[in-house]
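Form 12-C: Joint structure prediction
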Amino acid sequence: MDSGLFTINNVWMMICTGLVFFMHLGFSLLEIGLTRQKNTINILFKNLFIICAGLLMYYIGGFNLMYPGFEEGSAGILKFAGFGITAPENGMVPAYASGGYTWWTDFLFQGMFAATAATIVSGAVAERIKIGGFMMFVVIYVGFIYPIVGSWKWGGGFLDSMGFYDFAGATLVHSVGGWAALVAVFLLGPRIGKFDENNKPQPIPGHNIPFAATGVLILWLGWFGFNGGSVLSANPAITSLVLVTTSLAAAAGGISAFLTSTLMYKNYDLTMFLNGILGGLVGITAGADLMSPNEAVVIGLIAGVVIVMGVALIDKLKLDDPVGAIAVHLICGIWGTLAVGIFGSMAGIDQFINQLIGVGIVGAFCVISSLIILKIIKSFVGIRVSEIEELEGLDRHEHGMDAYPDFRANEH
Amino acid sequence: MDSGLFTINNVWMMICTGLVFFMHLGFSLLEIGLTRQKNTINILFKNLFIICAGLLMYYIGGFNLMYPGFEEGSAGILKFAGFGITAPENGMVPAYASGGYTWWTDFLFQGMFAATAATIVSGAVAERIKIGGFMMFVVIYVGFIYPIVGSWKWGGGFLDSMGFYDFAGATLVHSVGGWAALVAVFLLGPRIGKFDENNKPQPIPGHNIPFAATGVLILWLGWFGFNGGSVLSANPAITSLVLVTTSLAAAAGGISAFLTSTLMYKNYDLTMFLNGILGGLVGITAGADLMSPNEAVVIGLIAGVVIVMGVALIDKLKLDDPVGAIAVHLICGIWGTLAVGIFGSMAGIDQFINQLIGVGIVGAFCVISSLIILKIIKSFVGIRVSEIEELEGLDRHEHGMDAYPDFRANEH
Amino acid sequence: MDSGLFTINNVWMMICTGLVFFMHLGFSLLEIGLTRQKNTINILFKNLFIICAGLLMYYIGGFNLMYPGFEEGSAGILKFAGFGITAPENGMVPAYASGGYTWWTDFLFQGMFAATAATIVSGAVAERIKIGGFMMFVVIYVGFIYPIVGSWKWGGGFLDSMGFYDFAGATLVHSVGGWAALVAVFLLGPRIGKFDENNKPQPIPGHNIPFAATGVLILWLGWFGFNGGSVLSANPAITSLVLVTTSLAAAAGGISAFLTSTLMYKNYDLTMFLNGILGGLVGITAGADLMSPNEAVVIGLIAGVVIVMGVALIDKLKLDDPVGAIAVHLICGIWGTLAVGIFGSMAGIDQFINQLIGVGIVGAFCVISSLIILKIIKSFVGIRVSEIEELEGLDRHEHGMDAYPDFRANEH
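Section 2 - Result
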């Protein structure tokens, strides 16, 4: 591995790091777009906190916890709380990480990933969670739960030995966030007005659909880095295949969700189109490097149907997920993970079972741990805002400000 | 060509692919910003459809149709409908495409370009076209017309043999979209209220100019990939010259359009400034690799004047183009294509005639084919929405939703 | 230096150029978000003008003025007005600029930087400056003052010989803009209503906080290019360290500003969180390549406190800076520049004194020159709009248009 190739691999990984960072803007715009104006500041605040605190927590200990074997073979968990990680001597030369990139690039790329898991939760619990409790949850989830799960596979742990495959984190990132979202939504209960006296779900429209659409397009671009960077090098054949499968799955997911929802609801539903794109992206994430373009299209088409059904299912279960995060990240994350056993170069019944086991173990761990964490937070500081705060909006109560304080509409 | 250089070329092309993809966000924001609130969802829906369906159509057949000779010399048109294109054996190694990039990168970069042509149409027909008819048009135009025209030059066809030059697609992308926009605008007729009883054009202001400005800045960035990627390698001297000529033409176009419109209308018109930047970008696209920076500035300055005149001309012709797409993409596309015969390293009377012939042939083909396609669509499903739908907005009628359903302004 | 490494270095520098360009969108959204709706068009217009005119002025003469020794040893100032700079013969080969990139990349990267300094001023003077006067100021400041100061350090001038260090421009870019902002704000006086009859500062809320938050996230991403590109090569160890220190300082700045302001004002203040992130980014800019990650966190934490204090100080001095530009760019720019003498691999009392001298000299030059320029502009065309224009908004008076002309809110 010569220094030129090391340099180009590292450049690619830095670009992908930037793109994954940019996904946080995508998530922020998607979430505020699909929720009400009165909670906009609150959601933006939560998302900024996730990026900043998530990165710092990953720096303080998460990185060492997740990749225990990397630094001179020492057990990572013992190294935990090694505030001020220092690059190992060989961390800057081509010998490191199979010549792909430097130690610092490694940390930053993984750190940007870590914060993503918490962002997924943020959307699902929007408009009613207490900001203080949520911030505690983020610190614990990004600092401990995410890296522990990650270490089982990407850190070379037992899921890896067992044969579980998850290329870029359909399970390890999206479902890890999705399971916590499910638990949090269950514990929080629905927003006031989401279900009427007959328990029928009522639409609570968001306040800025152009922001939501902008968010989705930014997320698609960000996925170039999320999946493209998960190659962990700039290998031309694999990176370019991954971008193709990622984009085709996104396109197929969007078209399929739009067609499915048009058939079901007789309406060209933009929100379903957007969620279909995201579903396709999540769906291809586990096996983006294993699939042919044809298989990517099929995975995306199925993800588009899954999304529409998933959103309906969440409603039926009387769960209130304002942005559809559970359907997108959890349900499509599971679909994508299982798809590795059905399509692509690793397909087979054994692999399918491996995938199923991985999904189950990660799910059980995430559900139990988020249940414990959220229960504890609930008993200490509470997790749901007061009724008056929910009705008047979290922006005014928690932040003392308005998202559009000087905005005037025109009279007509 | 060693593997390090192949890798870096491929990385550059993947980045440019991402940037061209990002242009779709730029176009979306520009188009919704310059149109009325009541049609916002509709425009976003159209743009998402263009990206997704365009990419899939290009995958199903467009790519093979456009580059017939690439895959082992077989005639592309016969290969059409080869759903599930498979990379040729040598498509992943430095030997492919002169060492620039892999087959997958090639497909995805070109696929992102393909969708752009349809997006140009989208803006011009906004606020009155039937979504169903428009989607049919997109599928046919991106799947067939765009790749056929592209094959004549970039696929090594007769325009290429003849000496016609179009570096990044001033004619092959922008005019291909622009001609269809012209035909569609002519067939559709103006929006209700665009021309008063004396046939005088009336301004119909958009609803969100910050979105439009954001769109233009994103497009400028995207053009780094559109033009920079058209080098088809990371050649340092050419790529960096191209970014310089592209940016200088954009800057000169903006300044010149703003000055021209200030002189004519005694107002610092932001919309003209924005269109001037786009005009400069389109203007440099045909010869970004041939021009000195000085020549790029001159091309941009002229494009800025052309834009202001062009917008006035479209009005005078009683055509209604809500976002100025025809002036920007068609008129400046023609200007830029002809400029290759006037400025830069290929300038000369012979080249000018070649350029003129190319513009004419592409124009004739695009006008005739879009006329036929749109006429057929019109007779089957219709192309214009009903008066009541146009007045009340396409969002409510076609999509059953509002762009800002929960948006409240402040009382003052 | 082989051609592969030259190519990859050049690719990295072109990407960074694109990212610094993208910062202009970040600044634009931040500035319009934090100001009132009635001045939105005006601010967008100013920002577009800065990018376009700034780039052209840098092209006409600024680049040669700033890097006098680069072109065959000739004195740059004599070369000034060499409209149509031509790349020197060796400017496209690995020998140029230590093998990092081509002459064109050099020009464009530096040109994008140049425009940034003026953008900083734009935010501080918003909502009351005359557009004509401001445009004159931009042309002079970007064309002359910025490159002169830059030549003292980056052009190999006396500040460089003296031992002053400024990695990516905490002083040379951010303070150069910040000092001019301070002078302009002082000369302009506060907006009507900013201080009440008892001289107590009154909040004048902006009109679109989501735009401001979007702007900050785009700026963070842009800083990957601003600091990452200042390495002037793709050196894996240094570029990746720089991205890590940059991101950690941003994260720490955000958290620290939010905690400080929560302690002081009992509110989760999103604007302070945003400014804290920017403060951290500016704070790390002078020594991003010298600091360990731990030191970057400390610099960011301090920057976060500095920002909160700085904003309060500006208020106390009866200065009216609508977007907090002086606190972010000037005060944190000074902090970051001095931090090079306190933390990191160059720390020491001598270095601290060098940094202090550099800050003082640049400050004196910028204050005096902007005072002279603005005084002259004031006496010729005036710098402040009329009271009626300020009250009714600059958009209507200078541009004859509205930012959201068709925007309707929903009735509830």
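Section 3 - Comments
Chain A touches chain C through 60 residues (CB under 8 Å). Residues 3-211+220-399 of chain A form a domain with the Ammonium transporter fold fold (CATH 1.10.3430.10).
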